[in-house]
């Protein structure tokens, strides 16, 4: 092909690269402003002396489950806190661990209960939250939900719930999270790199996506959740947190992220296991927020798609236009990894456990690309040992 015949597609690639660089800059700038209070106002939030309930849905004897559940004893809070540990059935291997955690928490002065809440639908987490709230009988005006893999030992729960107390029109709040891998397998490295060094890092997304709610560590007022159908109305959705955010918005109730970083103690995962989990996350986006799905190839995966486009057009040659595109691509991806990890460190998280930032970027983006292809190509997901099939709107049914 002649140089002139390559000009138009080359200019289109350059325009895309410029848009990606600009979009990346906007994301990073907003994220930097979002996390600024951590540095400028590191003190404790001021909350009213209202009791809160901490619910921890469990399923299976995960790695370090006992440590995670018992970590609530080290969480900072100035309000009365009660802990509810829940499982879906009596045969769950998490049940004896939860009983051990209850003894530890009660010895530390935290009231704690362990209860079995049978599934009301395919989403067992939503079922357990629904059961915990029924059992609570409205005694606690604020409820905190923390997944069983979250380490609460360094969490300031005052900072988490303060916005709910300040703004009565706020339906729920959530904390971005990173993962502290339990092993050093390829899936551990790829998953950690995705969550602390890519545009999919929740430390970045929390500042630009005001419609989302990530339920890893969140808080809400049961009265607001009850007004939109309660957790019982979410047991047939894969992304119960995403569906809740949409229902709250329809009632004029806001959702916001809090500049507080949660750490999940992830299990040792193969690359295949990490891919299966991320496919489930992107399936939530596909079925429950379909417009957002196309931001993945347009922005999150764009550096590699642009590099492939340059290779397809020019091959091994590197004219100035190709060099300009590759430079924008490289700078955008490098800025993403650098700023994301700097923000995670500012928020108190540990990153950079392995040498090789380039390998981290390749692994994270390869994981994201494969999960994207799997999410758009199928409707089945695996979740906690169950195979489920997705229907319109992200509703679930058991696969036949």
Q: Figure out the total of helices.
A: 15
Computed CA radius of gyration, to the nearest angstrom: 22 Å
**Major β-sheet profile:** 7 strands, mixed
Number of domains: 2
Describe the global form: elongated
Classify the secondary structure makeup into a structural class.
Answer: alpha/beta
Number of strands: 13
Which ranges are low-confidence, i.e. pLDDT below 50, for 5 or more consecutive residues? none
Strand content: 15-25%
What's the architecture of the largest domain in CATH terms? Alpha-Beta Complex
Q: What distance lies between the first and last C-alpha atoms, to the nearest angstrom? A: 52 Å
At the third CATH level, what is the topology name of the largest domain? Spore Coat Polysaccharide Biosynthesis Protein SpsA, Chain A
**Major sheet strand order:** 3-2-1-4-8-6-9
Helix content: 40-55%
- Average pLDDT confidence is 89
């Amino acid at each position: 092909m002649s140089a002139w015949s390559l000009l138009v597609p080359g200019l289109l690639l350059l325009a895309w690269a410029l848009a990606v660089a600009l979009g990346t800059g906007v994301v990073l700038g907003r994220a930097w402003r979002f996390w600024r209070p951590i540095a400028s106002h590191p003190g404790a939030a001021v909350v009213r002396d209202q009791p809160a309930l901490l619910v921890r849905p469990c399923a299976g004897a995960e790695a370090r489950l006992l440590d995670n559940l018992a970590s609530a004893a080290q969480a900072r809070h100035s309000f009365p806190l009660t802990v509810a540990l829940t499982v879906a059935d009596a045969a769950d291997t998490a049940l004896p661990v939860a009983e051990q955690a209850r003894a530890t928490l009660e010895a530390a002065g935290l009231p704690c209960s362990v209860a079995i809440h049978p599934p009301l639908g395919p989403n067992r987490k939503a079922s357990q939250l629904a059961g915990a709230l029924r059992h609570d009988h409205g005694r606690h005006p604020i409820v905190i939900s923390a997944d069983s893999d979250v380490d609460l030992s360094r969490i300031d729960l005052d900072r988490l719930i303060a916005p709910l107390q300040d703004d009565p029109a706020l339906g729920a709040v959530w904390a971005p999270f990173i993962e502290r891998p339990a092993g050093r397998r390829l899936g551990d490295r790829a998953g950690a790199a995705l969550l602390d060094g890519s545009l999919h890092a929740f430390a970045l997304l929390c500042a630009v996506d005001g419609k989302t709610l990530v339920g890893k560590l969140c808080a809400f007022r049961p009265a607001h959740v009850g007004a939109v159908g309660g957790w019982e109305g979410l047991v047939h959705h894969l992304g119960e947190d995403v569906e809740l955010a949409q229902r709250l918005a329809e009632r004029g109730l806001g959702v916001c992220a809090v500049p507080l970083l949660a750490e999940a103690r992830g299990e040792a995962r193969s690359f295949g296991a990490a891919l299966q989990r991320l496919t489930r996350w992107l399936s939530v986006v596909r079925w429950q927020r379909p417009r957002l799905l196309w931001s993945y190839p347009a922005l999150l995966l764009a550096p590699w798609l642009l590099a492939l486009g340059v290779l397809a057009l020019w091959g091994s040659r590197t004219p100035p236009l190709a060099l300009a595109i590759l430079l924008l691509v490289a700078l955008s991806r490098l800025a993403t990894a650098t700023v994301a990890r700097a923000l995670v460190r500012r928020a108190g998280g540990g990153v950079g456990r392995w040498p090789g930032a380039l390998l981290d970027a390749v692994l994270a983006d390869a994981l994201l690309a494969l999960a994207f292809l799997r999410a758009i190509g199928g409707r089945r997901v695996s979740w906690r040992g169950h195979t489920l099939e997705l229907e319109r709107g992200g509703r679930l049914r058991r696969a036949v």
